[in-house]
## 1
Amino acid sequence: MLFMDFINSLNMEFYKYIYYNVYKSSKKVNATPEISVIGLISHCQINNLLTVLNLLFFFTRTNDNYDIPKCYLVGIIVLFAANYYYYESRNNKRGIIENHNYNLGKYTFLCYVYLGLSVFLAGFTYYIYKEW
């Protein structure tokens, strides 16, 4: 059960908003929108984790030279598997898709803004950690 608590903590409420809105927009052009939605959520999560890791290393003045591409690759594979299990295998997506309270309406673009900002912050904090 500890593993499931960890999975639930990774999938906070705003990831449900992302899942609902990206799923609905991806369903129009994609036969299996679940894969792209889970990939997008995993991408956001790994960027958030790398941002926190970079900030932690920066503020503790640790001169750890970790390989960010390997961390990203391993992290996104693990998070994709965990998210796939959470949304698809446990069939939690049905509860999200049927709940229209997650609809952002004309603010659906904010999901993609969040993705862009998570990529930018991961790169920017890595730059700050390495250069300052």
## 2
Amino acid sequence: MKQNGTGRAAFFMLILSCTAASCSLKYEKEMNFENASPELQFQNVRFMKYEGESLSAEIRAELLEQYKGDGKAYARNAHFKTWDKSGSPGSEGSCGLLGMNPQDELYTLFGSIELSSSDPEFSIRAQELKWNKKTQQLVSGQDSTVFLSRDDIEIEGKGFSASGISRSFSFSRNTAGTITADSGTESQSGADSE
């Protein structure tokens, strides 16, 4: 049996018209590609922030990108230090990726995070942390393990939260560590508060 070429063409046109009619591209909506590409990009950079005449923060990074629309910036392999208004050291640390949102005062840290502070004196190691400068809250993801140490305690757990205002911290689950009492004895504990 011989097939008709016009029948095939009609079938092809029917399929093509159904496909084209179901296309859902919105041509009237403009895309803003300015926010998707960095406005500024620096390699092996040292960035210093001053408040008034006092140095308040310093960031050294392998790569620093700043975006135009929202002012957000990202630093790869970042090392940072902060100082308070009197010029005393605040915190310092490093991470694989630092996301900075100065408009909302939110800072996210990812990958091999090491963070230390001199007042109060402590150090933290983690894989992901978020700092809210407005509320003075430092938190981890619920399933992210955080290691905290200071002169009298070494503890690890998940669901970490710390307040810069009350100077307290907590873990929501899978907590274990060592607390050194004033008498020089050590107490080891492990708890799961799921």
## 3
Amino acid sequence: MFATWVLIASILAPIATQEAPQGAAASEDEIRVATDHANSVIAANDAGEYFINATTTDVPTVRHLPSGMVCRFFGMDQRDVIRFYPGEAHGAAPGEDVSCGTWIGSTYLTLYATRYPTEHSLEDLFQSAAGEIARAWPSGRNYEGPFAVPVLEGQADPMGGAITAERDDRTVTSVLFVQKIGDWAFKARATGEEDGETVIEYSGMAFAWALPTTDLPAKTD
């Protein structure tokens, strides 16, 4: 299952380029509510050293300062979370292996930013993440529907793929996108019970908007 999933997913990249949709204008009250939610997520996860509130619309938004990754909590859910991972396993410095998690309907989306001390190719990063998903969903089979994602102007196509799987009488689509910018590895993982195209669109839009808009400096220490 692992090898087949990786092979098919790799073939799906590069992904078709589409124009990213824009949100409607928000009122001052809506922006205030969204700002308060973003502040609460930062505070609840003791993330203020590495994340700032970047909300400018009715979608709560935070930015990871070291990487520039932007996380939008579309569902404004009480389960929205920022996580920090210990770097002992691969040598990442404090605050340089993080994720943001949010619900969009029945789809759970996680965005990751990691700066590894050693060089990894985009293919290596993708295969490692795909293996984790294959192990988590042993019933998975290759997703056979359309696979297209918004890519913002100036962005390189990420590597991506999807599987369909069953668990506890549920059928889900699990999606993966991976991109490498400078020393940073960025990843989006989403799993949802909506139709596959919807899960891919949700996660693809979120990933495009999450990536930093400027090149990141190389690590010098």
